[in-house]
Design goal:
By secondary structure, the protein is α/β, with parallel strands linked by helices. Helix 6 packs across helix 7 and helix 6 runs antiparallel to helix 11. Bound molecules: nicotinamide-adenine-dinucleotide. The site of nicotinamide-adenine-dinucleotide has 30 residues, from helix 6 and helix 7.
């Protein structure tokens, strides 16, 4: 199997899809790996590191793409890249098939196969391949560091000769993977932390990290696969009222609430922001899907009456060495499923491949993806 890794093209992308550690294992298993020159530089891996791991380095993108059986990428490759792959070629990447289904058109036109890392089922067997969890862990951690850097106060309580400084209050909305990591990080830094989620099961996890869980009576919006499901506007209104009250006492709010394939719910309203103290900070991790804060603007800093709102859409990329390492290990675990006796073999009776392969040789084969793709085409 010939696996190819290109340099990512987005300006804010510092990660690389495979690091030398994984390349070495692929090569030892009899695969050929080719890496575009300079692909790993921003993630701490030089061309020499890749060569030492057994990869071939090339600056000729066209040649690389023509020989690829599998192209491994962090983000959705652009149309030009996809048009140069050979028919039947496989792309493994974060493809956002439910959020940007229209971008699958290039896979259909070029007869390609698309394996979407977001669609890997959240099962125990698939844990080693769970890129979403890896990246959410990093984003949750970095969100707290970003907020800490911008806050005009310290997080821990300090007892000094000049008197005692109380700990900062951090409020985390959405207690999935990113939210729990944000809670853990803020707790490590000494903040008083509160957490909120509409899945009741999140309560135990929040409390186990030493934070308080805010409860909305009789609400448990746990849906398929452990994800949250959409809730009615009446319940959302109650949630917003509770959050507005809590926001007024928070120095920092980190929001991570998402529902796969849908716009992120608006939970922190303009009114809630206006109830916050000057100098408070909001980090909205749902920015790529519309944001949890009514005033968020993706990748911009909004100053509303002295409250600073950040909505970075690619925080994991700002810790490129570890983000690439985890991504690479996750993808390597997934690739083991695609090979049998040294040959590419897509076995759709396997639930992981069945769930994550959204296009096979130019045909959309995932029902949710197909529905979203057709809806987008008609709108
Ligand atoms: P996500 O990124 O889709 O959402 C983040 C959080 O936002 C979730 O906890 C969700 O409940 C919450 N949320 C959604 N709407 C909300 C609202 N209106 N108000 C408040 N909170 C809201 O979720 P995720 O971090 O990817 O995790 C989703 C689930 O998958 C969790 O239950 C997690 O424990 C589970 N999971 C399982 C595995 C595994 O078994 N392998 C791995 C990772 C995650």
């Amino acid at each position: 199997m010939q696996i190819v890794v290109l340099k990512e093209s987005a300006a804010d992308e510092f990660r690389v899809a495979l690091v030398p550690e994984s390349v070495k294992k692929f090569v030892a298993a009899g695969n050929g790996i080719s890496v575009e020159a300079g692909a790993g530089l921003l993630a701490g891996a030089s061309d020499t590191n890749y060569e030492q791991a057994g990869a071939v380095i090339s600056s000729n993108r066209e040649e690389l793409l023509q020989k690829a059986d599998v192209l491994v990428s962090i983000n959705h490759p652009d149309e030009e890249v996809l048009s140069k792959l050979k028919k039947g070629g496989i792309v493994i990447a974060l493809l956002r098939p439910l959020d940007e289904p229209e971008k699958l058109q290039a896979f259909i036109e070029n007869g390609l196969t698309a394996i979407s890392l977001e669609m890997i089922p959240r099962t125990t067997r698939a844990q080693a391949m769970d890129v979403l969890s890896s990246m959410a862990t990093i984003a949750g951690y970095k969100a707290v560091l970003l907020a800490t850097e911008k806050l005009p106060r310290m997080l821990p309580m300090m007892t000094t000769a000049a008197g005692t400084i109380p700990p900062a209050r951090v409020f985390v909305v959405g207690a999935g993977v990113a939210g729990l990591q944000a809670i853990a990080t803020a707790r490590r830094l000494g903040a008083v932390v509160e957490g909120f989620d509409i899945r009741a099961a999140a309560g135990e996890a929040v409390r186990s990290l030493g934070a308080k869980f805010l409860e909305l009576e009789n609400i448990n919006a746990e849906g398929e696969g452990g994800y949250a499901k959409e809730i009615g506007e009446d319940v959302m209104d109650k949630a917003r009222q509770l959050l507005t009250k809590t926001a007024a006492n928070a120095d920092c709010i980190i929001t991570t609430a998402q529902i796969p394939g849908k716009r992120a719910p608006i939970l922190i309203t303009k009114e809630a922001v206006e109830a916050m103290k000057r100098g408070s900070v909001i980090v909205d991790l749902a920015g790529a899907n519309g944001g949890n804060c009514e005033l968020s603007k993706p990748n911009e800093i909004v100053n509303h009456n002295g409250v600073f709102i950040y909505a970075p859409t690619n925080l994991a990329a700002t810790i490129p060495v570890h983000a690439s390492q985890l991504f690479s290990r996750n993808v390597a675990a997934l690739c083991n499923l695609l090979v049998k006796d040294g040959e590419l073999n897509l076995d759709f009776s396997d639930d992981i491949l069945n769930g994550s392969c959204v296009v096979h040789q130019g045909e959309i084969r995932n029902e949710r993806t197909k529905t979203n793709y057709e809806l987008r085409k008609t709108n």
